Amino acid sequence: MQPGSEIAMQAAGANETTQAPLVDAHILIVDDDAQLRQLVSKMLRTQGYRATAVAGGREMLEMLRATPVELIILDVMMPGASGLELCRHVRQSSSVPILMLTAKSEETDRVLGLEMGADDYLTKPFGSRELLARIRALLRRATVTPNLVKPPSGTKYTFEGWIVDTLRRELINPDGVVVDLSTGEYDLLLAFVEAPQRVLTREQLLDMARNRTSAPGFDRSIDVQMSRLRRRMGGEDAEGIIKTIRGAGYMFVPDVTRL
Fold first, then answer.
1. 23, 68 Cβ separation under 8 angstroms
2. β-strands 26-30, 71-75: how paired?
3. What are φ and ψ of residue 170, in 5° steps?
4. Is 189 strand, coil or helix?
5. What distance in Å separates the CA atoms of residue 45 and residue 63, rounded to the nearest whole number?
6. What is the pLDDT, as a whole number, of residue 81?
7. What is the Cα–Cα distance from 71 to 138, expressed in whole angstroms?
8. Are 116 and 88 in contact (CB under 8 A)?
9. Which strand (E) or helix (H) includes residue 227?
């Protein structure tokens, strides 16, 4: 941590934030810089959030065992366990949104954090408005996914003769043939069958799929994944199943039955 420019920007931006309705979400701030912890905590409380700030990994894990949190703001560069190690540890048992903070700006560092399970990345120095915007976006996405997490083993979904078998992670076509899907394609399809006849934005679909996959090669272009999935399901015929909603996203059209 290098207190200074980022602290000054936080302080300068703190008075520019727009008051939001009380939301009561509990946000955990993990950073070894006491001044930054104090500034971010104060700013979040003025916006209606509950904020708890701790200095490192041991305190963070104790807090997570003691009380639920809706979002973690986690610094990368800390003594002892790094933010990346802590992020990976949290992801073993929780899908709580994680926003990483770092003084590094290299793309490789951001990608590594995302592959460890982080949901977003913010490079220091940053302003309060940007921090709040990212927090609100992550919390909005989190409200979409709690009921859309990976279903229990053995669940099956059926639509128009197709079957999605979540135990085997298979898609079976109406002729009884297993369709070969990549991890990304399968997770995207599962997001659809769990939210049928509902318009889902690309961002929502990406978050739903990312919550299920640990594959580092997951293609982050939803449009590319969509094209591949439709091709696996019959090309042009599949466009009647997964409909593009211009300017909004996609919708899974058929009725879906859970077996």
1. no
2. parallel
3. -125, 150
4. helix
5. 18
6. 84
7. 8
8. yes
9. helix 222-232
Successive 10-residue mean pLDDT values, the chain, 259 residues: 40 43 77 93 92 92 86 90 87 86 71 79 88 92 54 74 88 92 85 89 74 45 83 82 88 90
Full-model pTM: 0.52
Q: Which residue has the tokens 């318009």?
A: 199
Q: How far apart are CA 6 and CA 67, in angstroms?
A: 29
Q: Look at residue 140 in the predicted model and tell me its pLDDT.
A: 85
CATH of domain 150-258: 1.10.10.10
- The pair of three-digit structure tokens given for residue 152, joined into one six-digit string: 């229990």
Cα gap 9→98, rounded to integer Å: 22
Of 193, 97, 99, 86, give the one whose Cα is nearest residue 150.
Answer: 193
Residues of the chain with CATH 3.40.50.2300: 5-144
Q: What CA–CA distance (Å, rounded) separates 97 from 100?
A: 10
Q: What is the DSSP string of 40-52?
A: HHHHHHHTT-EEE
Does CATH number 3.30.300.30 belong to domain 5-144?
Answer: no
In whole angstroms, how far apart are CA 238 and each of 191, 196, 230? 16, 15, 5
